UniProtKB/TrEMBL annotation:
<dbReference type="Pfam" id="PF00137">
    <property type="entry name" value="ATP-synt_C"/>
</dbReference>
<feature type="domain" description="V-ATPase proteolipid subunit C-like">
    <location>
        <begin position="121"/>
        <end position="178"/>
    </location>
</feature>
<protein>
    <recommendedName>
        <fullName>V-ATPase proteolipid subunit C-like domain-containing protein</fullName>
    </recommendedName>
</protein>
<feature type="transmembrane region" description="Helical">
    <location>
        <begin position="69"/>
        <end position="91"/>
    </location>
</feature>
<dbReference type="InterPro" id="IPR002379">
    <property type="entry name" value="ATPase_proteolipid_c-like_dom"/>
</dbReference>
<feature type="domain" description="V-ATPase proteolipid subunit C-like">
    <location>
        <begin position="30"/>
        <end position="89"/>
    </location>
</feature>
<keyword id="KW-0812">Transmembrane</keyword>
<dbReference type="GO" id="GO:0033179">
    <property type="term" value="C:proton-transporting V-type ATPase, V0 domain"/>
</dbReference>
<keyword id="KW-0472">Membrane</keyword>
<comment type="similarity">
    <text>Belongs to the V-ATPase proteolipid subunit family.</text>
</comment>
<dbReference type="InterPro" id="IPR035921">
    <property type="entry name" value="F/V-ATP_Csub_sf"/>
</dbReference>
<keyword id="KW-0406">Ion transport</keyword>
<keyword id="KW-0813">Transport</keyword>
<keyword id="KW-0375">Hydrogen ion transport</keyword>
<dbReference type="InterPro" id="IPR000245">
    <property type="entry name" value="ATPase_proteolipid_csu"/>
</dbReference>
<feature type="transmembrane region" description="Helical">
    <location>
        <begin position="25"/>
        <end position="48"/>
    </location>
</feature>
<dbReference type="GO" id="GO:0046961">
    <property type="term" value="F:proton-transporting ATPase activity, rotational mechanism"/>
</dbReference>
Length: 191
């Protein structure tokens, strides 16, 4: 038996077959996972960028530690946006009341896939936006810590830039909520 060749029929299928034959509930749950997971990654990345510069700059000016912690809070907000969106999306996933293993033609397949794809795109939109928000807040927070260590009058000016960077996450969750509004899984068969 050679490991380079596959004898099963599954090996002849490509990724397009896997993606087109996946359950709409799978897409919905992947949307929830991507929304939450990528938001946490964005927050962690931003905290890492801000925190490392804050610790380095506080060696020269220990006075900056307490007031520059607000930059870490802005980064953490991106993770909270992901949690909020995950809760909204998880509440939209409903088990069909009359589900059986062999669904007949009276089921609204299009409604299921519409809801699944919509929740997937909603979660992915929120997650990717929050990665961008976390990184941009982290870079602005890093600049805020270093600038504040040099000249304390720069703190408020750079903090305003950081607030605008944090607005990316708010825009992302607004878009995600708008996308998910129409995503409702049918819970009964078509009449």
């Amino acid at each position: 038996m050679s490991y380079g060749t596959c004898q099963s029929s599954f090996c002849n299928q490509g990724w397009s077959d896997v993606l087109t034959h996946m359950s709409p509930y799978g897409y919905a749950n992947f949307g929830i996972a991507f929304g939450l997971g990528l938001s946490v990654v964005g927050a962690a990345w931003g905290i890492w960028l801000t925190g490392s510069s804050l610790v380095g700059a506080s060696v020269k000016a220990p006075r900056i530690i307490s007031k520059n912690l607000i930059s870490v809070i802005f980064c953490e907000a991106t993770a909270i946006y992901g949690v909020i969106m995950a809760i909204i999306l998880a509440n939209k996933v409903k088990k069909p009341e009359e589900a059986t293993s062999s669904l007949g033609d009276d089921w609204d397949y299009a409604g299921y896939y519409y809801a699944g794809y919509g929740m997937f795109s909603s979660g992915l939109s929120v997650g990717l936006t929050n990665i961008a928000s976390g990184v941009s807040v982290g870079i602005a927070g890093s600049s805020c810590a270093v600038g504040d260590a040099q000249d304390s009058s720069l703190f408020v000016k750079i903090l305003i830039v950081e607030i605008f960077a944090s607005a990316l996450g708010i825009f992302g969750i607004i878009v995600g909520i708008i996308q998910s509004n129409a995503c409702t899984f049918p819970i009964t068969a078509l009449e």
